[in-house]
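Translate structure to sequence.
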């Protein structure tokens, strides 16, 4: 799967729509990451944004990202013209901790981003998105996560395709949502998200969201500060 051009796959899929707009459930982690994704996808899909991120620490950060996302969608033309809706799911961090299994595998707490802990987090959130998409008869489901250079697009797409096919033997193809392949950072997507964030003065967080990325960021800042204070 490492040689697959996910964004090219998405472009080829869109060409088959012939002007119709399928229903897409788009999992989003924040306003900045969803900005370009929404600008691009709203041309081709009827979009509902799914905000399910109990991994985010602390709760005030979770709420700040949600508020920023909602604020953007009241001002951002693609969201307004596309009548984009936001579905918020409950904030329960215990669901996240149980899903990633750091208590059983404490070494995961010190992993850098893109490792096994992150893969489990992708799967955990996308499973919930998949279930919502299935229950509400969406044609496709996807996530904004691949727009970040710090996220593993290969693992994200692997998880999405596994979820798409897990009920293949029980359900007809038309009765289950399909995974929308993507690597939104490609073709200038990440750069465009920076431009939109600047244009709308969006809050851009400096860590992924979970307590482990937060701690890693704090340790980095402490080392940088300590180094700056050392005499030459």
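Result:
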């Amino acid at each position: 799967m490492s040689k697959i051009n996910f964004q090219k796959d998405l472009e080829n899929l869109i060409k088959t729509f012939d002007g119709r707009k399928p229903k897409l459930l788009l999992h989003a982690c924040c306003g900045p990451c969803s900005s370009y994704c929404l600008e691009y996808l709203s041309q081709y899909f009827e979009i509902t944004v799914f905000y399910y991120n109990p991994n985010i620490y602390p709760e005030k950060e979770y709420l700040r990202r949600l508020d920023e996302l909602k604020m953007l969608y009241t001002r951002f033309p693609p969201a307004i013209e596309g009548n984009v809706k936001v579905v918020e799911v409950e904030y329960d961090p215990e669901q996240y901790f149980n899903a990633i299994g750091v208590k059983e595998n404490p070494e995961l707490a010190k992993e850098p981003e893109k490792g096994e802990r992150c893969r489990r987090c992708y799967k955990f959130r996308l499973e919930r998105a998949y279930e919502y998409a299935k229950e509400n008869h969406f044609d496709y489901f996807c996530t904004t996560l691949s727009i970040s250079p710090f996220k593993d697009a290969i693992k994200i797409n692997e998880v999405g395709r596994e979820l798409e096919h897990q009920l293949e033997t029980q359900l007809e193809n038309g009765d289950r949502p399909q995974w929308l392949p993507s690597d939104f950072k490609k073709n200038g997507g990440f750069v465009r998200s920076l431009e939109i964030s600047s244009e709308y003065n969006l809050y851009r967080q400096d860590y992924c969201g979970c307590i482990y990325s937060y701690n890693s960021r704090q340790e980095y800042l402490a080392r940088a500060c300590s180094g700056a204070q050392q005499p030459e």
